[in-house]
Design a protein that fits this description.
With about 130 residues, this protein is α+β, with helices and mostly antiparallel strands. The chain has one domain (about 5-120): Electron Transport, Fmn-binding Protein, Chain A (Pnp Oxidase, Chain A). Helices cover about 20% and strands about 45% of the residues. The chain has a 7-stranded antiparallel beta sheet with strand order 2-1-5-6-7-4-3. It is globular, with a radius of gyration of 15 Å.
Length: about 130
């Protein structure tokens, strides 16, 4: 199953982990990524710690745990390749809307694009 189809058809919880230039790690709950036509994935980010970390260290890890019994899902190793700030594309990809007050607090928003360096199941399998 291709990633676009997978994320379009699976419910679950995602965690994006980033670290700053000194290696201090942050993990945050994120929704399913947007799978782009060119195979990259993207996330919409507010100007918070995950986004700030990516300014000094482009590497990240995304863990997706499928809803249901057992431990099924995916682990993606990522490298940031570019971003757009408050773009039209970002607005077309948004899945959620917030109150006007929340929207103001979240601005600016960034659409951050990543190459997928590796894809592993949630449990088991090694890169070796």
């Amino acid at each position: 199953m291709e990633l676009r189809e997978y994320f379009d058809n699976k419910d679950g919880v995602g965690v994006l982990s980033t670290s700053d230039g000194d290696g201090l790690v942050n993990s945050a709950i994120y929704g399913r990524p947007h799978v782009m036509e060119d195979g990259k994935i993207s996330f919409i980010m507010a100007n918070k710690l995950s986004h700030k970390n990516l300014l000094s260290n482009p590497h990240a890890s995304y863990l997706f745990i499928e809803k249901g019994d057992g431990y099924r899902g995916k682990r993606l190793s990522l490298t940031k390749v570019r971003e757009e700030k408050d773009s039209e594309l970002l607005e077309t990809l948004r899945r959620r809307r917030y109150s006007p007050e929340q929207e103001r607090d979240m601005k600016p928003l960034y659409l951050v694009f990543f190459d997928i360096d590796s894809e592993l199941p949630l449990v088991g399998a090694s890169e070796n």
